[in-house]
Structures are given as C-alpha cells and as structure tokens.
C-alpha cells in the first residue's frame, strides 16, 4: 500500500519536473526551437520517458503551456492596473513560453488570441453592467485595444528588453496608466478600470450602435 | 558592353527575388523555421546560389529584414494616428518577418527594440520641443508605453487574428485612439500626437525630474 503510494508520488513528481522543464524550454526558444530531447535534459530524465508520458511535443505543449491562459474573474473585471503592474514585474515561465511561441506556432497563437478575447469580453461585460446608457458599438474595439496594449508592453518589457518600461511600477501605474485606461473606457461607464484622476471626463462622445 | 549591363541587371533581379523570398519565408514561420533551402525554393533558384550571394541565414536576414526598421521623421514626430491606422490595415513582409522572428531570434529582438527606442526617442524630442515647462521624468516611460501599445495591437491584429482590431479604421482612430494617445502625452505639451477631443486636459499633474 505504502509502496504503491510512494510510486504514485514519484510518478507525479517526475511529471511535475517534466512540465516545469517544458515551460523553461518553450520559454527559452519558443515552439520551433524546443525539442523533446532538450526538455528531457532539463528534467533530468530519458527522452523516451517524456514521449511515454506525453506522446508528442504538441501534447506536452498543451499540458505545460496552454493551461496558463485560464482566467479568474479578478483578471477580467477591472483590475487592469494590477494586471499591468504584475506583467511589468515578472513573467511566469508558462506565459513566457506562450508569448515566445505564439508568433510561429498556430496552437499557441490560438490560445493567446482566446485569452485576449476572454479578457476583452470580461471588460465589455463589466462596462455594460456598469453603464446607464445603451450598448456602445465601440466597446469591443476599446477592450481589444486595452488588452492588446498590455500584451505589447509585456512583450517589449520582457522579450525585447525595452528599458523604459521597467520603470512602470505601482506609482507610475497610478500616475500614468490609470488615466490612460480611463481614456479607453467608454465615456458613460463609471471609470471601472481606473483609479487615477481624469477618469470620468476623458473620451469622445458616445455613439449608439445604430450610428455605425 | 550591353551584355555586361544585362548580366548586372540579371544579377540584381535575382538578388531582389531572393530578398523578397527571404522576407516571405521569415514572415511565414519566423527565424527558427526559415531555411536557405526554403528561401531558394520560393525564389526559384539553387540553394548554393543563395549561400554564394549572402553567405549565411544570419546575413540574409540582416539584408532582407533588418533594413525595414529604418525610420523617416514623419514616423516619429507625432503622426501616431497615421502609424496606427497603417499598421492595422496591412503589414509588409519585412515587418511581419521581424515581428515573427523577434521573440526567438536575438538579432531580430535587438532590431525591434532599437526601432521602438528610436520611435520613442522621437516622440520625447517632439514633446520637449513643444513643452513650455521643465523636462518630465515620465516622458520616456510614456513614449515607451505608446510605441509598445501599437506593437501589441499590430501583433494581436495580424499575427493572432484578434478580430475586433480590424475595425480600427480611420474613423475609429479619430474617435478612440486620438484621445487615448492624448492621455499618454505629457500634460503640458500641446497634444502634438492627437487630433481628437479632450487632448489638452487629459493626464496627471506634471512632475519634474528631481521629484523622482
């Protein structure tokens, strides 16, 4: 019984090591450069064991990287300042793997687009819950601009090493990013996504859906 | 004499075909997936000829893709709305090659960071020429946020296929993006980068460099 448990534990521990190694390998060089051999080397196991457990590079990528796109509600409904500050500070290996792989691996691009779409939809839902007027035809576009901008800043900061963005700390987020988010927030919502000054009077006049 | 000229013309024509083929190949799969063999196939020439002309994949990348980062003044000094609208509409093969390669090829990442830095510096120079007060310690950060955001929207639109961004046309740029740029423009410049409403009163109080 005990031996059985210990074996299961050992198996789980090895799987966890392989997943962590895969995240590192995909983060280091993106999808195209990652190899089962390289992942096995990082995990300290035989390549045959990696294949036996995960079957293919595609499936290991799905197991190790794609779950990273799961969202909790706090991520989508207005805590943009927190999201931005967290992204500027650090990048998890799974997220880095996704960002490095997305431009060339279709499955990673799909996962990243899905993630951005879900976050944008969450913003739109939050704005609409909050709005008093009719639906705004621009809501989806505004939300897509916000989440894509955070994506771009994350890539520029961590993958390209654009130094100036390292200074986007908590203080700068409040001072600069909050009014910037507010400028993209539909004008008749209550500035849900921002906590800085100028959040209620920024933005152009609202248009109804029929005006398009 | 004529034969000589015709040979030189032929040589130039072949080089142009190889460069165009390299842009397509690097755009299709990024740096890691591109091969001399694949480029030669696209150009309809022998791989040995490609090697003879360019020496290596690295050098061909430098010849075909890196020159795309050259900037003209109009790009840096305030025409953000035009840049954004152009980026949303189409992507040149050279730019696509750079964006797909940057996350995994250090030479492409360096070139892209250099490009973003130059554009950000151009914005800062334009703001300072325009400003009446002292230099703003946040200028570089604000400029980096703007250029990185345009990068993120370009990646999300063209490499990931985030549909909502396809609606960011000229009209939407004036309506939505101009006030958004204005919110990132230092408060005591004259809204150089924006043409929409709300451009002069957006943004937080200015701080001097010594306040940091």
List the helices and strands and how they pair.
2 copies of one chain form a homodimer.
Chain A: H1 2-33, H2 36-43, H3 47-54, H4 57-64, H5 73-76, H6 80-89, H7 93-101, H8 106-130, H9 139-159, H10 170-184
Helix pairs in contact in A: 1-2, 1-4, 1-7, 2-3, 6-10, 8-9
What does this structure look like?
2 copies of one chain form a homodimer. The C terminus of chain A is likely disordered. By secondary structure, chain A is mainly alpha-helical. Chain A is built from 10 helices and no strands. The first copy, chain A, has 2 domains: 64 residues, Orthogonal Bundle (Arc Repressor Mutant, subunit A), CATH 1.10.10.60; 145 residues. Chains A and B meet through helix 1, helix 7, helix 8, helix 9 and helix 10 of A and helix 1, helix 7, helix 8, helix 9 and helix 10 of B. Chains A, B: Keywords: DNA-binding, Transcription, Transcription regulation. Chains A, B: GO terms for molecular function: DNA-binding transcription factor activity; transcription cis-regulatory region binding. Chains A, B: This is TetR/AcrR family transcriptional regulator.
What oligomerization state is this entry in?
homodimer
Total individual domains of chain A = 2
Strand content of chain A is under 5%
Largest interface: A-B, 60 and 60 residues
Total strand segments of chain A:
0
Helical segment count of chain A: 10
Gyration radius over CA of chain A: 21 Å
Low-confidence spans of chain A: 191-212
Query: What is the average per-residue confidence, as pLDDT of chain A, rounded to a whole number?
Result: 82
N-to-C CA distance of chain A: 68 Å
Shape of chain A: elongated
* Residues in helix, % of chain A: 55-70%
Order of helices and strands of chain A: HHHHHHHHHH
